[in-house]
Amino acid sequence: MDSVVAMGDFASDAAAFSAYWQQAAARLRRLPPKAQRDPAAQDIADIIQQASRDARFVFLRKHARTLYDRLTDNRRKFVRIEKLVYDAAELVPGLVPSRAEVAAEAQLRQSEKDGWEIDQGILCNQLLADPEAGMHLCHAMLLPREESAEALAKFLRDGRLDLGAAKVERRGKAAVLLLANPRFLNSEDASTQIATEIGADVCILDPQSKVAVLRGDVVPEGKYAGRRVFNAGINLTHLYYGRIPFMWFLVRDLGFVNKMTRGLARTNVPPDEVSGDSIEKIWISAVETFAIGGGCQILLATDFNIAARDAYMTLPARKEGIIPAMANLRLARFVGDRLARQAIMYERRFECDSEEGRLICDAVVPPEEIETTIDRVAERITGSGAVGAIGNRRALRFSVEPLDTFRRYAALYAREQAYCHFSPALIANLEHYWNAQNKKA
Question: Which runs of consecutive H residues, i.e. helices, occur in 362-436?
Fold first, then answer.
């Protein structure tokens, strides 16, 4: 394909590159659907897509901040990342896929997709890589969701909140967030994402609690019937069948998980530790049965981890073919570089009741003592006052992971996860290790 050159003026470059991308997309659509292409046709598709993506990097390296400022009224308004990518599609057609294009591919299995969403990863990579735009975008994702005010009011009125895939309960001094996706062992997927983040917002904003607790709900049927399961990670069956959109990864870790780490931001104050005034709670995780993948990632973001002696943790990233979110940023702080590499790249399993497991889990107790341990830890953490606990939390966070470090890692993650998400290796891994083709979505 012919190339296109960035001249430096946003308007003229946007018009020229947009025409280029739209022409390339038209050529791609003239080919048979991916599932029906022969090797020669797929080679043509790969050439078209690679040239288009190279052009996206050229355009965005020149204009990422200008684009972000156009989309956010010069950073006077906050736009969540999952909306921002579609606003960008309208402002610069062809830069990233439209809602209609993503919706069309969402009907396909992961192996049948052309990977239009990789372009969203490229866009997010370049926006997050820019210090001004990236920090503002991280700020936007740390604000409470619009739905959370109404949810909080309901929780304060009723003392409990059922969001479907997540529940919030009150337990003494604690607001307890329950992960509730029992058919898939409390794994995370597109059906759980909004509910889980709203639930986290409510726990943090709840004025009647001093700490927040995350645990899994009881699984009523199957192998683990009657037991609480903390978190089975990403729903691999949904991933195989194409039901996990790429933006799910970024929304989860810039939103729900980062809110546990950093609290909620205010609109008028930067959310960094030095000048910010975040709304925070100490988070306690209670691990029962197992914390797999995303569940283990969460333990690296919370303040105190309680685990049953028979529970275990894994980060099966290699078997999934994806990056385990922020674990690559955080795990080595807990267990050291070599064990982190073994966990992420060679599926090393950590028993919670082991020397390595206790580097992540702060209290490992018999399963029947989980309940009393939650109460005891909550009382101890808040015994000297929540203000001091939050101050120490901020100071510790600043020393190991200031927001700008997180921003830069998130930029890398956006790019690399996009390519992993649509890699043929992902499908091969899911079929080989998960037997995904024989599981019902």
Answer: 370-382, 386-400, 403-421, 424-433
Per-residue three-class SS string for 41-71: HHHHHHHHHHHHHHHHHHHHHHHHHHHHHHH
**Tens place of pLDDT per residue across the chain (441 aa):** 678 999 999 999 999 999 999 999 999 999 999 999 999 999 999 999 999 999 999 999 999 999 999 999 999 999 999 999 999 999 999 999 999 999 999 999 999 999 999 999 999 999 999 999 999 999 999 999 999 999 999 999 999 999 999 999 999 999 999 999 999 999 999 999 999 999 999 999 999 999 999 999 999 999 999 999 999 999 999 999 999 999 999 999 999 999 999 999 999 999 988 877 899 999 999 999 999 999 999 999 999 999 999 999 999 877 788 999 999 999 999 999 999 999 999 989 999 999 999 999 999 999 999 999 999 999 998 876 666 889 899 999 999 999 999 999 999 999 999 999 999 988 888 887 777 677 777
CA 147 – CA 305 distance, rounded (Å): 29
Q: How many CA atoms lie within 13 A of 356 on its CB side?
A: 17
**Which residue ranges make up each domain of the chain?**
10-141, 148-401
Contact yes or no for 147/205 (Cβ under 8 A): no
Segment holding 364, helix H or strand E: strand 363-365
- 11, 250, 376 from 66: Cα distances, Å: 10, 22, 51
Cα–Cα distance for residue pair 153/12, rounded to 1 Å: 49
Question: Which residues, in sequence order, are bridge partners of residue 350?
Answer: 313
In CATH, what is the architecture of 10-141?
Answer: Up-down Bundle (1.20)
Structure tokens, 254: 């810039």
d(CA 416, CA 408): 13
> What residues contact residue 162 under an 8 Å CB cut-off, 6+ apart?
none
Q: Are 320 and 296 in contact (CB under 8 A)?
A: no
What is the CATH T-level fold of the domain 148-401, as seen in this structure?
2-enoyl-CoA Hydratase; Chain A, domain 1 (3.90.226)
413-428 as b/e: b if 16+ CB within 10 A: bbbebbebbbeeebbe
